[in-house]
Design goal:
Chain lengths: 802, 220
Amino acid sequence: MLKHYLKIAWQSLLHQRLNSMINISGLSIGMAASLLIFMWVSNELNFDKFHKDSENIYRLKNYIAIDKKSTWIWENSPYLLADEVQKKLPEVLTVARMRPMAWENVHFNIKGEFIQESNCAYIDSAWFSMFRYDFIYGSANDFNRHPLSMVLTASKAKKYFGHENPLGKTIRIDTLDYEIRGVVKDIPPYSSFQYDVLIPLAARRNNPANIKNDESWGNFNYLTFVKLNPAASVKDLPAKITTILSENKKSDNIKTGLIALTDMHFENDLQTYVIEHGNKNVVFIFGILGLLLLVIASINYVNLATARASLRAKEVSIKKISGAGRGQLFMQFVVESIMVSVISLLVTILILKFALPSFNQFIGKNFTLSINDRLLWMIVGGTLLASIFLTSIYPAILLSSFKPVAIFRGFNALKVKDGALRKGLVVVQFTIATVLIIGTIVIYRQLKFINAQNTAYDKSQILSFNIPYKLFSKYKDDGRTQLVNSIKQELLSRSMISEVSVMNQSSVIDMKGFSSGGSNDWDGRDKDFMPAIGFFYTDTDFKKMLNLEMADGRWYEPGNKADEHNSILNETAVKEFNIRKPVIGQRFVSQDDTGVIIGVVKDFYYKSLHEKISPVVIKNVNDYNSTFLVKTSPGKIVEAQKAAKDVWNKFFASEPFAYKFLDEEFEKLYRADHKTASLVWIFSGIAIFLSCLGLFGLAAFTAERRTREIGVRKVLGASVSGIVSLLSKEFILLVIVSLIIASPVAWWALNKWLQDFSYRIDISIIFFIAAGIITLLVALATVSVHAIKAAISNPIKSLRTE
Amino acid sequence: MIDLKGIYKWVNTGNNRTFLLRDVNLHIKEGEFVSIMGPSGSGKSTLLNVIGMLDEFNEGEYNFLHESVHKLKEKQRTSLYKQYIGFVFQAYHLIDELTVYENIETPLIYQNIKTSERKAMVADILDRFNIVGKKDLFPTQLSGGQQQLVGIARALIAKPKLLLADEPTGNLNSKQGEEIMNLFKELNNEGVAIIQVTHSEKNASYGSRIINLLDGMIVN
């Protein structure tokens, strides 16, 4: 019996080749796409849960009250806090510290060649006992025993030492040789600590200057984790730690809090951070997207299977007359469903095999496809079961509801019954697809808007580099200014370099240095108002470099000594500080240095458009400026870059030259947004494709079902265009209904997304119209293929079929 | 074998009741070959469907082999016609996805007959109808006459006592039709009762009795 079912299933699969192809490709593309999404989503939701006792591990975070209204939140704590907490609080079992070298450029010196390593961190000796690392070679003990040790991940070890066992080999950083004392398995994608190179904190503490720096209670530089006794109360702990901090720091403006290790990935209130975070909204949106893709793919499957089932009324009737019972017919549909599903499963795995590497590269993770993966089977199994359920039960009910003799009278009973369901499903599909299209358009426009905002200067022509602190600190005040000036002169002497400016901030694209406090003052300031201000200390060339425009007053004049005490504000600063009119000439104290406001620059972007432009004060002071902005002559980018390196080597021969172009920085700043945009684009493309695939199949079915009607109409004189419109009308109507449902949904969802941006586009009706036209055109093209084919066929043929 | 008493069948269209069968009384003995004739719309096919238990009637009694069909539940009726009746259609109604062999085999599968036995039975009938060479072809690869042969083979495979044929030669040319009618005659001689609906006097003459229908009534 089963053999018979299989035979029938296989035959009808071959017989309905187009249908089967639509079914299988639709289902597998949908499953593969949503599987990729769900892999990512589940990775995001399972961050840092793989460590032993992860539910008992917390990180300290510090809330710094800067004035009555605002608080800064830092992820780092002072070095000594960990020791004190361990000593004084018995409920804390272990304390571990990490200091990522995120702001320093670490260069491995491999046989005289410098290789930049960006994923290095110092860890203390408790780190490996608190967090899970799988050692392939060496051990945590060896590592902790010697200060000049290094642990590498397997792929880093392979990069530097090939396949041989790297234990005992050394890598030089600056002047010190570090010995490899451990190799661990690669960091899993669901770990917050994506550091491939680990060095003992003890190595850093070989330098007395570092110890002095670290042991100041005012320096917050260490990620500090505590593992608690499971029985201890987490609620009371922050207050206790705050007391310890206040006593030692002798100030009480900082409160310490805790965040669970497992919540850390979605922490979103930090002012600055080194650990990469996820965005819960994005995860949520993609989770839904994955689900929707599955729904669309399943709808195709159900729609086509049921449509086909009614075409098969004849076969079913004959079987009934031959004595088939309902159970037997039902089984036959189940077997067919299972067959299509199993083939789809194989195709899905095939697609995943090919798509996974590029997907990994795109999102920067390293997912692998494993047969043992529970998630894989949950998703695939769930989808298949749902599809099998829908595609076997529904047709079985449908087909057992009519008497076999109905085939003598045509299929009237069937036509009416299942049309409404199918139409409903098509509407659902196209609603989803339209929402995604509108989403794609809006996201694209917003990103274009961002690009258009930052066009005051050509980012691709400016490169920036920084004199590291360790070099800079060797010079005295005057020496520093002199050094910077000589480098600047040297750079300007090269013909391929047109302008040079030097500033204190490390970036003009993603500026992070703000300060606040009572050292800033102006007339009319409320005593408690101590806002955070971004200070740019720079030279007179800064304005030309960034193409700043003056809203009022003047820019700094070269050689004007008095200007050293004066300030230039941006428009936002003038507004938020409530500077009295006339603004120019007002007294302004910045960092205890009294002068007047000599100018106001128009607001310019110096950080992400996700954030509002905040108050900026520009000062003409050169003492500590170490970031160079170098503008290349037009068309001389490569030469200018070489020239800059040349100049660098003249001054710091033994140091590697690290530079970046501003457009790279800019791109990095919005990388997450661009990724979101590309993913939405790809997946809405897939959604549209799948929906059209379904529509294509249904149109084919309709054309087939109405062959005789079309024949009769043609004999009666209907034109080709008349018949095409007759066949297309019903589907186009469905798409229009979808548009109407989709518009408010899309409007709501996109407003949510745009709320994340301080500077954003307005959602215009044009986007909806455009999306509507796109959807309609695609749907029309899809449907008319069959409509035209049916309309131009010879009516004699179709009328002869029965 | 078949005993119809006062059979009425009607459909309600609006306020009007349209009678499809009106007071049909009919007795058919085992092994008889009966032709039902009449103009289009006179109720020939309806009567055949009622006899084949594919369609219900509104009034009257129907006894088939001493079973009162009008008192049976659908399931019992199904098993009754499964066992005793074979159907042949004007449009053959073969399953396009199956080969000739598989088409003929289908009723046996649903009657839970073992594979080996099925093989023997299908081989027998293929042999008898001279279509062994066609057994692996699909219906669309056959001529109309050959398709109808397969249809009849399928109807006969379960060894029914009664063969119901609704214009079996309607889609065939005269030569093919003649062959089919000769086959019917032969089958009838072997003891299978046949009831056929036909428009053709010539075909009707193969039978032993002709029943004329007009507006749902038997007129003789």
